[in-house]
Design goal:
Elements (H helix, E strand, L loop, with lengths): L8 H10 L13 H16 L4 H12 L5 H8 L21 H10 L4 E4 L4 E7 L2 H14 L8 E2 L4 E6 L1 H7 L5 H8 L3 H15 E3 L5 E5 L2 H15 L3 E6 L6 E4 L4 E4 L5 E5 L4 H7 L5 H13 L4
Antiparallel strand pairs: 1-2, 2-4, 3-4, 5-6, 6-10, 7-10, 8-9
Helix pairs in contact: 2-3, 5-6, 5-9
The chain binds zinc ion.
């Protein structure tokens, strides 16, 4: 569903702030400078002894936005603060880390980026809670923030954060040259990158065999090279897999659709599965479990 001519981002925002639930497709995030101003006012008003309800009204009168009661509660109890979070002004200041490498890997799979009305957003929407939680924790670490906790829509868990610098690194089309220094920083970073990619688009059959799907041939060829050169993990492909389009999530419409693009896959050779388990592995429990079952059955674990 496209945003029609009557779409008004401000109106949308107020409505969402009033009803701080996850009924709406995604919650708009106010610019951080504005959140900091509001945060300071909330503390002043609280010191004057105003109730949460009165504070909300006062903030609405001054700024025209309704902030959630839970936000006021978190702020006054100092659990959250818009000051948490260091702004990373440019890509040069983004430091390589396992967390960043993993975020990049997830982004090449299920993760997404979009340019919002006032923010640049990086997000992940997926069904495995532990996967989305891990992504939220890592994304928080990269941005110098507390872990970003997932919210839930009808079928999936969602984590989103705003960062222009990270958006510039991760926006589509993905430029492999741009991500290489982070992915290939050290063995640990490369493993974290591959884990993010396989958590997103790795498919483990009931028998325990692993395939990695992607619509981007270059991404698969790159992953294949890293697996072999860094970890001695052998794979075949990339093979074309035209019949089955991958499912993509469009954060703007909140809808899933099958891509019409060609899809390819890598097949990890069975002899290399113990190495895959040792060096890469999965955060997604159901995938890790199938791999472990295979290794146990064949006496390799
Ligand atoms: Zn590293």
């Amino acid at each position: 569903m496209a945003q029609g001519p009557g779409f008004c981002p401000e109106g949308e925002e107020v409505k969402k702030m009033e009803d701080n639930t996850t009924k709406t497709k995604r919650k708009k995030i106010l610019p951080r400078e504005l959140r900091i101003k509001i945060y300071n006012d909330v503390h002043k008003l609280r010191k004057r002894g105003l109730s949460h309800t009165k504070i909300r009204k006062e903030i609405y009168r001054k700024y025209g936005v309704w902030i959630g009661k839970s936000t006021i509660s978190y702020w006054t109890r100092k659990i959250h603060s818009p000051y948490n979070g260091r702004r990373i002004p440019s890509l040069e200041l983004l430091k390589p880390s396992e967390d960043l490498a993993n975020v990049i890997g997830v982004r090449l799979g299920d993760g997404y980026t979009y340019e919002g009305s006032s923010d640049y957003v990086i997000g992940l929407r997926a069904k495995d809670k532990e996967f989305v939680e891990d992504f939220g924790r890592r994304l928080g670490n990269v941005l110098g923030r507390a872990p970003i906790r997932p919210r839930k829509d009808a079928r999936r868990y969602i984590v989103e954060a705003a960062s222009k610098t990270l958006y510039e690194l991760l926006r589509k089309p993905i430029d492999l040259k741009r991500i290489k220094p982070y992915v290939e920083h050290c063995l640990k970073c490369t493993a974290a990158f591959l884990r993010g990619l396989f958590d997103s688009e790795g498919c483990v059959s009931k028998e325990g065999y692993i395939k990695l799907y992607n619509t981007n041939y270059e991404v698969l060829a790159y992953a294949q090279k890293l697996l072999l050169r860094r970890f001695g993990i052998e794979s075949t492909g990339p093979w074309p897999n035209k019949q089955k389009g991958t499912t993509t999530y469009d954060p703007r419409t909140g809808k899933q659709y099958k891509t019409k693009k060609d899809c390819y896959y890598l097949y990890i050779r069975a002899e290399s599965l113990p190495k895959f388990y040792r060096h890469i592995g999965f955060t997604v429990r159901r995938k890790q479990k199938r791999l472990e079952e295979y290794l146990r059955r064949t006496g390799k674990l």
